[in-house]
Amino acid sequence: MKVWFKYLIASLLGIACAFILPANNELVSKGINFITELVVRFGRYMIVPLVFFTTIIAFNRLRENKLLFKTGIWTGSVIVASSFILTLVGLISILIVKLPRIPITGENESASAILGIADLFRAVLPYSAFETLNNGVFIIAAYAFALLIGIETCVDEVTFRPVTTLVDSLSKLMYTISVIFTEFLAYGMIAILCYWTVKFRAIITSGVFTPMIIMLLVDFVLVAGLIYPLIVRYLCHDPHPYRILYASVTSVVTAFFSGDSNLVLPLNMRHGKESLGIRRRINGAIHPLFTVFARGGSALVTTVGFIMIWRSYSSLTIPFKDIMWITFTSFGISFLLGGFPAGGAFISLTVLCTLYSRSFETGFLLLEPAAPIICSFASAFDAVTAMFGSYIVAVKTKLIEHHGIKHFI
């Protein structure tokens, strides 16, 4: 059975459970929350070992083949370009479509939100490099340590050959174990979908955020179904770009309903390798970077959300300079969300309101009830970006073995 089909069946079962179980019962609600937390922990369990060992061997092979610079340029360019495209899509859509105002509740309670940039640097450079392996949230910390080892093992290949041989075996072992985990995660999607559906029902019942949800859905269809396939068609000269979208189904479903970018990483790496034929050295080198830095989905929903908040508070036209500030600030913040694999989109909106001030400091509270669905869409955009982006980098570095669609997992 195809992996995406397993996840789809589990999703449908999870939705059914949300309607069957008495979710209003406190004991049932706590049980659902607890099981969902365990599923998320299970999904993240193998991420750091997988990233660490695969990144070491990936950079060792890339430096050995003199592809480090080319891979870095293409990866950085795709991440920046995709984030900018998504920010523009969000801006254009919210400027063209004037959504209904959100009722002002008069709620003044404010929770401060900070990006913790200094803490991110401390996480990358702790007092001991081994501490990076304890950070299961900000995975770029373990990635940086692995990158250093991978590059340095090329300095003296004879001396470090036992190390690379061991790491190569461990990388394959971690990948094999992560495959098993992704298979079992399909069953965990039942709990995740049950938990998500309960929250979504409360959001959709009010009707206040339905127009925004419809607009974000249209934006997603536009990006995943038109913009990204066209880019791949003309940049990679691929006559069948929708193969990538098909390979992204499992990742997008998991990302949307979990809202967790780290949870999707093993799925992206697996589908990149086994469905699209992307070589391991590219999978290991770029997928963690896409997970941490390619958060254009958060920039898109932040732009949309902030302009909705503005229009809810004021009937005045937004000045052009403020529109540009909102756009580029949302774009910039998206690169600083690596420490928030879940909920990063709403954190971004909170920070944007705080930075803008002018009595908008607590404006994010208007969208707080819709935070789960906002983060869901942001994660879905980021998941499909990672799949299309990794394919582009693999094609441009010629580290891909194309598979027929019947061989997709």
Could you walk me through the main structural features you see in this protein, from its secondary elements to its overall organization?
The relative contact order is 0.18. The mean pLDDT is 89. The protein has 409 residues and is mostly helical. The chain has 16 helices and no strands. Helix 4 packs parallel to helix 12 and helix 12 runs antiparallel to helix 16 (371-396). Helices cover 72% and strands 0% of the residues.
How would the blueprint of this fold be written?
Blueprint: H1 3-20, H2 26-44, H3 47-64, H4 68-96, H5 117-124, H6 140-152, H7 157-206, H8 210-235, H9 242-247, H10 249-258, H11 261-274, H12 280-293, H13 296-313, H14 320-333, H15 344-356, H16 371-396
Helix pairs in contact: 1-7, 1-10, 2-7, 3-6, 3-7, 3-12, 4-8, 4-12, 4-13, 4-14, 4-16, 8-16, 10-11, 10-16, 11-12, 11-16, 12-16, 13-14, 13-15, 13-16, 14-15
Write a compact overview of the structure shown.
With 409 residues, the chain is an all-alpha fold.
Describe this protein with a few key phrases.
409 residues, globular, mainly alpha
Radius of gyration: 21 Å
What sort of overall outline do the alpha carbons produce when their principal axes are compared?
Answer: globular
Order of helices and strands: HHHHHHHHHHHHHHHH
Q: How many runs of DSSP E, i.e. beta strands? A: 0
Question: Strand share of the residues?
Answer: under 5%
Which structural class fits the helix and strand makeup?
mainly alpha
Percent of residues in helices: over 70%
Distance separating the two termini: 8 Å
Instruction: Please count the helical segments.
Output: 16
Low-confidence runs of at least 5 consecutive residues: none
pLDDT averaged residue by residue: 89
Note the main sheet. Answer: none
